Amino acid sequence: MMNGKLQKWIQVLVFMLILLRTESFLVDITYVESAVANGAVCLDGSPPAYNMDKGSGAGINNWLVQIEGGGWCNNVTTCLARKSTRLGSSKKMLKQLSFSGIFSNKQKFNPDFYNWNRVKVRYCDGASFTGDIETVDPKTNLYYRGARVFVAVIEDLLAKGMKNAENAILSGCSAGGLASILHCDKFKSLLPVGTKVKCLADAGFFINAKDISGASHIEDVYNDVVTTHGSAKNLPQSCTSKMKPSLCFFPQNVAQGIQTPLFLVNAAYDSWQIKNIYFGAWCC
């Protein structure tokens, strides 16, 4: 009986893999080299990057911008560990990404957005694109410039056609989902006045809960992230005017002050949050 069920699940998995392979396609990376002059760089000083598939037809002036996820670094040690990986350096990123699902260019797989401009913003700052510290310690050569990176990427997209956007969605998953919340109003402010803008956070609503020992583990981690990256000035003022900046890394303290339409998608039982917040296992 178990063998029959297992065989059925294997068949389903194989079918899904074949389907995914059929609908996916590779998209080249784009480096925002011009951003370097303004100090808008990844942790290692390399230029920001994104992957983009251009829209067509009726979707040519519609934009779906998704921010990549990948956790955070909360001190020099954890940021140095990311510096030599794709989460801290565009030099380490794959030159192509596979686009599928909501990024598919086939109408039957992606009826709503297949002909939109679809952009995946690569994550390389370790603080959901909120940091901005001018000084660079020569001992570490770490650049905490995520907020500049976000603006530089959006400005590059504006120059490539987003200045004519009729509809624009800022989305993201995990740490990218948090970024889509924290930057929702900022994103709207950078676009033309008449653009219809919405934000979508997928698995980006992280809770401020004590762990099983009763310690405020995730609150301490976020406080370290905000302090290390100098994020306070780039968090929504509607929140920082009422409470300490590190608490404004939690969506529940920020969402109510966001003026742009915001949509949240989150599992009732988020496995990452159960492990890393409730059990306090988060380390880097």
TrEMBL record:
Enzyme kind, highest EC tier: hydrolase
GO cellular component terms attached to this protein's record: plant-type cell wall
Ion transport recorded as keyword: no
EC number: 3.1.1.-
Signal sequence extent: 1-24
Listed InterPro entries: PAE/NOTUM (IPR004963)
Coiled coil stretches, renumbered: none
Gene Ontology biological process terms from the UniProt entry: cell wall organization
One Gene Ontology MF term: pectin acetylesterase activity
Compartments where located: Secreted, Cell wall
Keyword line: Cell wall, Cell wall biogenesis/degradation, Hydrolase, Secreted, Signal
Residues annotated as transmembrane: none
Reported function: Hydrolyzes acetyl esters in homogalacturonan regions of pectin. In type I primary cell wall, galacturonic acid residues of pectin can be acetylated at the O-2 and O-3 positions. Decreasing the degree of acetylation of pectin gels in vitro alters their physical properties.
Protein family membership: Belongs to the pectinacetylesterase family.
This protein's name: Pectin acetylesterase
Taxonomic source organism: Handroanthus impetiginosus
